[in-house]
Model the fold of this input.
Amino acid sequence: GNEWTDVRELVEAMAGTEVLIRGRVHTYRHVSSKKGFLIVRQKGCLVQCVVTESKENHVSVNMVKFVKQLNSESFVDVIGYVVLPKDPVTGTTQQVEIQVRKVYCVNSALQQLPLYVEDAARSEADIQAGKPGANQDTRLNFRVIDLRTATNQGIFSIQGWTQIGFIEIHSPKLLAGSSEGGSAVFRLDYKGQPACLAQSPQLHKQMAICADFERVFEVGAVYRAEDSFTHRHLCEFIGLDVEMAIHKHYSEIMDLVGELFPFIFNKINENCQKELEAIRKQYPFQPLKFLPKTLRLTFAEGIQMLKEAGVEADPLGDLNTETERKLGLLVLEKYNTEFYILHRYPSAVRPFYTMPCADDPNYSNSFDVFIRGEEIISGAQRVHDPELLTEQAKRFGIDVETIKMYIDSFRYGAPPHGGFGVGLERVVMLFCGLNNIRKTSLFPRDPLRLAP
Ligand code: 4AD
Done:
């Protein structure tokens, strides 16, 4: 399989090697029917890709034509050789060029964009000198494009830099409309305008991906107004949200989950022995059983296991709390783990933004993660095609006007992407075998409790 190289890693020492890069069409300069220069941008880094008609490289004049008609900001995969240019390259960040062999359009942007990155990036001095530029309101209205400038990539990389290659973001908690499509939101008055508290960072973390941040996370308050009087629902909880561009498959997201949590569990077991002992003294529990390589089962496999155990569950419906628990026990028996991923859920039971499976739209590129038979995470690949997204939102009864800016974000060029959301209190509750989420919330907020 092909591996993608980061544009910023393209250096002279790589001359002669073949690389595959993914980035946006920044600009294109046409020389003739046989030659053109495509500048590809990735997170503010630019590399010049030379497309030349050549029998040897299997590049035809049609290929040059194809590259010429690509819309700005579209995502492309480029395969080519790293070459040292005869003259030093200007106007790019990389000093090497790519001699193109193949170009694939991964996802096209609109032909006419409401804002161009160059116009958003124009300096104030240039604008005063009469060069075209975009004013602040335009830039904020089309923030997902504005954020792609090298300047904004810089500002938010500094603000959210981490050692792990994910940028920490802080999405707004005051929203004009619901973010999960549900009705259970806390409504409030935003200076005369109806508003609500965010049910999740879902829409904005996806927009951060459209804004080229590639891999982002957030730890923050999440608000749910549902009247759930259970041992595992709060009205305010701490969500750990992750969103990332993916290259091929939603398994890339499950790989992350499957490695991250055993790492966390091991660290807790190694470093918190005294604390675990203290908890166990009042609330006895068995250490969590988990595998170094996290088990993955498909939803259909789960349904089959239940069936064999005499439990009927709808293969196109959702599991209820009881069947989830039962499946947890069956998995423990068969695979000796209390931590596993269940994926390829029926589309009908997932949120509107979930990507259907390419081979069967009744199922989706989605997953839940369980500890001791209870859900701690839900995640999925997202729909990045604005038309399909609109269709799915309508099918779920969502007023698409309220999420117009979110849907439009995907018209300005978006990469395939996905992510997940973790409930912090649930993870701690289930890791420690506790029976109530109120025990793991510092000052719990539930349908009946707003104090202390
Ligand atoms: O399953 P949920 O609602 O999924 C989302 O919010 C998606 N935006 C996530 C995504 O990226 N696709 O919530 C995610 C997790 C749940 O698995 C659960 O652990 C926790 O958040 N959670 C709650 N925790 C406490 N009280 C509640 N009312 C919760 N609702 C969800």
Observations:
- The first strand starts at residue 18 and ends at 32.
- The pocket of 4AD is lined by residues 180, 200, 202, 224, 233-234, 237, 239, 241, 375-380, 419-423, 425-426, 437 (CB under 6 Å).
